[in-house]
Design brief:
The chain is an alpha+beta fold and 449 residues long. Helix content is 44%, strand content 25%. It contains 12 helices and 18 strands. Strand 7 and strand 8 form a beta hairpin. The two termini are 15 Å apart.
């Protein structure tokens, strides 16, 4: 219950900030163009806080924190007194209306740059993209990548961290191949072409990195048990914290991954687990529980290993000075924007499955997880969502800012506004598409749960 409340709280904070930023973009440009703003609301529904500002705008925080709006004086909606017509939105030039509409999404991009700037100013703990191992028969292994190699660039773009590698690989989904520039532990640089034709992975269970066969240098998982899940199969069998796992069914365990593979391959099958406890070897009968993942049934024991930290030689803080952090923030925002548009294109063409769409539940989980890790991770998460919020609002659906912008562009080109009947039909179609998209995202969220 505590985890749910934490996720919900982090979600409300993140979404509240991002909605406020988006709506303030509309508000600020509207005021600069002489439009009277009647209400600035964060959230929908019944107001839980309201204040009338000296500027004549009512500021509101409402109960449903899933969006917000700026209500402007508009003759198409309400009767406008003759004395106030010059302050009505619909009486402004088409260029002013376009500027007001596009200001919301632009504010989200500006906020993303600010969040990344602050994140890089504080410093992000990072790990060099050095390979600890390469999975046998994987695309990476077939391309000739070896343990100890450091990835320098992917398709000509330099990478400094495993996060950079992850983003670069996401952008390659659906492509035929990718090219890695690597350096071995002797300093010799080579190029490796990795075929991606048969590269498939489930994002709910794998990262692009592991699916490609790359095993990063990272925290070392020992065979010492650090945690036993209460009422889990291992707890019922008698495994205790501090036990050193040695063998399963007489086969010596080489590492934690070896244990995971053996347990997952044996759902509801009893196995003999040899452990060392207080200097003595003991035998325990363990029956992994049955767990259904999205595409297969696996065994589950309920154990967590003792973890040794990453070696100092691979760790560093990704930190910039105040000016350099601006450039880094702009670059990261641009990369995310390009990547998001690429993914939208691949979603439309069917290269990327619609199963990858996420809704508010997944966003809430992401908000809670990053907030728990620390401020820099929460800032990165908000920047990511802010970029996506900006892009989604620019889509040419009539119920979104992009739809309004499309109508105003047509008006600017033709010299006359789009007929209201056509706009109404467009709004209905746009609303239906948006509801279907949100329904699919929510369905995916519940399926992941």
């Amino acid at each position: 219950m505590g985890g749910i409340l934490w996720n919900l709280g982090a979600f409300i904070v993140a979404l509240g900030i991002l909605v406020a930023v988006h709506e303030y973009g509309h508000f600020w440009v509207a005021r600069r163009n002489g439009v009277k703003v009647e209400r600035f609301s964060i959230g929908f529904g019944k107001a839980i806080w309201r204040r009338m500002g000296k500027d004549g705008t009512e500021y509101v925080v409402a109960m449903i924190p899933l969006g917000g709006y700026v209500k402007m004086l508009d003759g198409r909606v309400d009767e406008v007194p003759e004395a106030l017509k010059d302050q009505a939105f619909n009486h402004k030039s088409v260029w002013a209306r376009m500027a007001i509409v596009v200001a919301g999404p632009m504010a989200n991009f500006v906020f993303a740059i600010f969040a990344f700037w602050l994140m890089f100013l504080i410093g992000v703990p990072a790990v060099k993209p050095v390979l600890n191992d390469v999975t046998q028969s994987s695309p990476a292994a077939e391309a000739g990548l070896l343990p100890g190699m450091e990835i320098l660039a992917i398709d000509g773009k330099a990478v400094r961290t495993w996060e950079d590698v992850n983003f670069a690989l996401i952008a390659r989904i659906g492509d035929d191949a990718t090219k890695f520039s690597v350096q071995d532990n002797r300093g010799q640089k080579t190029e490796a072409r990795i075929a991606l034709a048969n590269w498939q992975f489930n994002p709910d269970e794998q990262s692009p990195i592991s699916a490609l066969g790359l095993v990063p240098v990272g925290p070392a998982l020992t065979l010492t048990v650090a945690q036993v899940v209460e009422n889990g199969p291992a707890s019922a069998a008698g495994v205790k914290t501090g036990d050193v796992l040695q063998a399963i069914n007489g086969e010596t365990l080489t590492d934690w991954r070896d244990l995971v593979n053996k347990v997952q391959a044996s759902p509801e099958i009893e196995m003999e687990l040899a452990v060392q406890r207080n200097g003595q070897r003991q035998s325990i009968l363990l029956t992994p529980a049955r767990h259904e993942s999205t595409d297969r049934v696996i065994g589950y024991a309920g154990l967590a290993p003792q973890v040794l930290p990453v070696a100092d030689e691979y760790r560093f803080d990704l930190r910039y000075g105040p000016l350099a952090a601006v450039g880094a923030g702009m670059s990261r925002t641009w990369d995310l924007t390009v990547l998001t548009f690429q993914m939208l294109g691949k979603l439309v063409t069917g290269v990327v499955s619609v199963d990858n769409l996420s809704g508010p539940i997944s966003i809430a989980k992401g908000a809670g997880a990053t907030a728990e890790y620390g401020l820099v991770y929460f800032l990165g998460f908000m920047a990511l969502v802010s970029v996506n919020l900006g892009i989604i609002n620019l889509l040419p659906l009539p119920v979104l800012d992009g739809g309004h912008l499309l109508f105003y562009v047509i008006e600017a080109v033709t010299g006359r506004p789009v007929p209201e009947k056509i706009q109404e039909v467009g709004f209905k179609i746009g609303a239906a598409l948006l509801v279907m998209l949100m329904g699919l995202a929510l369905f995916n969220d519940f399926a992941r749960l």
